[in-house]
Description:
Elements: H1 2-15, H2 22-34, H3 38-64
Amino acid sequence: NEIDKRLKYFEEMKENDFSPNVIIYSSIINVLMKNNEINNALKHFEEMKLNQIIINSIINGFMKNNDYNN
């Protein structure tokens, strides 16, 4: 099924150290919601929020320490 294909591709991206951005997460969440897979969509939403929090924390840490070279 189409959802399974997309989710498999999404998981392969993460396994290959590709960090999905908000657009990719939104696309996955949108497909899941349209197919009434609400719990799965919420799981991906929580994962997206966590990733964004971590990224923001790292950026803030570099900025506060004036470490722009890393």
